[in-house]
UniProtKB/TrEMBL annotation:
Region (Disordered): 1-26
Name this protein carries in UniProt: Carboxylic ester hydrolase
Keyword DNA-binding: no
Matches recorded under InterPro entries: AB_hydrolase_fold (IPR029058), CarbesteraseB (IPR002018), Carboxylesterase_B_AS (IPR019826), Carboxylesterase_B_CS (IPR019819)
Gene3D superfamilies xref list: alpha/beta hydrolase
Domain Carboxylesterase type B: 59-581
Basic and acidic residues biased stretches: 1-10
Entry superkingdom: Eukaryota
Enzyme class: hydrolase
An example Gene Ontology molecular-function term: carboxylic ester hydrolase activity
Keyword terms of this UniProt record: Disulfide bond, Glycoprotein, Hydrolase, Serine esterase
Length: 635
């Protein structure tokens, strides 16, 4: 009973963190003269009246709608104890006849399930990190992890009485790879904050996105897995101390794309309340729905594994369900025409609502939905990293044989890699590509002995694959919506970088790589599989800044100001009601620029600056090209 009787452990009534606890404090103060037994009774009654949930004391075993799970105790970066519940099934294994079908609720279990191990990653070939990777994972992969701070004293009990904000992370991987397991997406940084963190796996590649553009296999299975995970969280997270009315979803790359899709999909209504998209938007070239193209890819996939595409699609898909998972995943190699291109082969599609497909994930193009204002009006953070294009430049330019081929056939290969034919008429491909190369490079080839050419290639890929679509998304939402949009650019260069892992070889070139796609993840999650713990003082500081901004947003609905970190940032101003501002047409976007270097070179090592005119010249260049995505949805 000490946690009830020792007054110094109880929060002050003046604390903004623990509003509403004064009645317990006053009760103890006024009743200390009564016999101790009576004091105990009074305190228990007061705790009951104030909503104290005694079940929270037994934290390790938690009940869900499907059975009980027992967690394990781990420790955060600052050595705070937290509970980890790993490998919880949120859907039935999508195997056998359930392959290429929407997820079903998990089977209930008896007894207590031990949550000490991650579930398997979903079957995949990870072209992000290897040139020709082996097949990894299993089809039985629809599991999630939940992490929450451990109750340690009466102060924590009062925090839990109000329930903690929930943050659900959607992993990266181009819709063909990735996972949310703890060796890749570690919880240690977030567990220094008062939030509940959820990570999970979803189907990727052919298993997650095969679409015949009809009822045989409508597609979007991976996105539907994500919806199933969000529904599970909504219905069960309260038992883990989470607030089901304060859920923030956030993701990076294809995870960030997924977040944006969930913002426009009717099927996710009321499942979350805030959103963060890192290097991802539904308006990115590779992320836009391509229903007709995906049906052709499905037919070619069938040919690769000896399933007849000339029969009706129901029979073709039935055949594909019988193919060994490793064989099916390995066949993706046969699509590659240059290095690992085409890179992101499978992806989202629009669906048709039918009797056999009564709950389509999305039935209209996201751009059309945004133009109509048909999206969830909730606070949204969205941003990019400075040199997104390193994702592809590094593996291409650090292989001498690939570099030679690229130099010799740059017009053909370059325009194919950048998907120019997806945006212009066939007769426009060459002139548009010439405009692009002239603007960014000057020459019609990339020469790795000339850093300016390498940077030009990176900038082309950055803009075409990530930055321009993100810029369009920011404008569209801030123009059409009624909720704040925070925009950022991440340009901090740390000691570690994903560039080394994207490179297919250890060949080096004379180039100082910048801030790569995925580098922002280094400061949010420890990744034991790829990196040693952060050790540079500035890297650790940047990590604490990023985690505090993201958790501020989840807790308070605003990412800044950042308290107790010097120099503290200026207030990060959201974009709202741009329709009332003439300046929007001049690309006058206010954004947070996050920059610096882990060695602290050139003055202040970390800068958080409010800026405007986001890459104005480059954005106007793309806007003035005859690209199909340049439909003005602002006026």
């Amino acid at each position: 009973m000490d946690r009830f009787l020792i007054k110094k452990d109880l929060p002050s009534t003046s604390s903004s963190e623990h509003t509403g606890t004064g009645s317990v404090d006053d009760s103890i103060k006024n009743k200390m003269s009564l016999p101790s037994a009576l004091v105990i009774v009074i305190i228990l009654v007061v705790n009951y009246i104030n909503g104290f949930d005694s079940s929270l004391v037994d934290e390790l075993v938690v009940s869900t709608a499907y059975g009980k799970v027992k967690g394990i105790i781990q420790h955060s970066r600052n050595n705070r104890s937290f509970l980890a519940f790993k490998g919880i099934p949120y859907a039935k294994p999508p195997v056998g006849d359930l392959r290429f079908r929407a997820p079903l609720p998990p089977d209930p279990w008896t007894g207590i399930r031990l949550g000490d191990k991650d579930g398997s990653m979903c079957t995949q070939k990870n072209y992000l990190l290897h040139h020709r990777p082996p097949v990894e994972g299993k089809e039985d992969c629809l599991y999630l992890n939940i992490y929450k701070p451990k109750l340690s004293n009466s102060k924590d009990l009062f925090i839990y009485k109000r329930r903690l904000p929930v943050m659900v992370f959607i992993h990266y991987g181009g819709f063909f790879a990735g996972n949310g397991n703890s060796d890749y997406i570690g919880p240690e940084y977030f567990m220094d904050k008062n939030v509940v963190l959820v990570t999970f796996n979803y189907r990727v590649g052919v298993f997650g996105f095969l679409s015949t553009n009809d009822d045989a296999s409508p597609g979007n299975w991976g996105l539907k897995d994500q919806v199933a995970a969000l529904k599970w969280v909504k219905n069960n997270i309260v038992n883990f101390g989470g607030n089901s009315d304060k859920i923030t979803i956030f993701g990076q790359s294809s995870g960030g794309v997924s977040v944006h899709y969930h913002l426009v999909s009717p099927s996710t209504k009321n499942l979350f309340h805030r959103a963060i998209s890192q290097s991802g938007s539904a308006l990115l070239l590779w992320a836009k729905p391509k229903s007709q193209l995906q049906s052709l890819i499905a037919q070619q996939q069938a040919i690769f594994v000896n399933c007849d595409p000339s029969v009706n699609t129901l029979e073709m898909v039935a055949c594909l369900r019988t193919v060994d998972a490793n064989v099916l995943a390995n066949s993706s190699d046969l699509f590659k025409t240059f290095s690992t291109e085409p890179f992101a082969l499978y992806g989202p599609v629009t669906e048709t609502k039918t009797t056999l497909n009564p709950e389509p994930y999305i039935t209209e193009d996201p751009l059309d939905l945004i133009k109509k204002g048909k999206f969830h009006n909730i606070p949204w953070i969205i941003g990019v990293v400075e040199d997104e294009g390193i994702l592809r430049a590094s593996p291409l330019l650090r292989q001498s044989n690939i570099q030679t081929e690229l130099n010799n056939n740059f017009d053909k290969i370059g325009s194919e890699i950048l998907g120019i034919a997806l945006s212009v008429l066939p007769t426009q491909v060459t002139p548009v590509w010439n405009e692009i190369t002239s603007y960014f490079i000057g020459d019609n080839y990339v020469n790795v002995t000339e850093p300016e050419d390498v940077q030009g290639f990176i900038d082309i890929y950055s803009d075409r694959s990530f930055i321009y679509g993100t810029y369009q998304s920011v404008l569209m939402h801030a123009w059409r919506g009624h909720s704040p949009v925070w925009f950022y650019n991440f340009a901090y260069r740390g000691e570690y970088s994903y560039e080394d892992h994207f490179a297919a070889t250890q060949e080096t070139i004379n180039f100082n790589w910048g801030v790569s796609h995925c580098d922002d993840l280094l400061y949010l999650f420890p990744s034991k599989k790829f990196f040693k713990p952060l050790k540079a003082a500035n890297d650790i500081r940047m990590s604490k800044i990023m985690v505090q901004m993201w958790t501020n947003f989840a807790i308070n609905g605003h990412p800044t100001p950042i308290n107790n970190i010097k120099p503290s940032s200026a207030l990060w101003t959201p974009l709202e009601n741009l329709k009332e501002q003439e300046s929007v047409k001049n690309s006058d976007l206010v954004y947070l620029n996050i920059s610096g270097h882990y060695c602290g070179k050139e003055g202040n090592p970390i800068r958080l600056e409010i800026a405007n005119q986001f890459k104005t010249e480059r954005m106007l260049f793309w806007k003035n090209l005859p690209l199909s995505e340049n439909i003005d949805g602002i006026n």
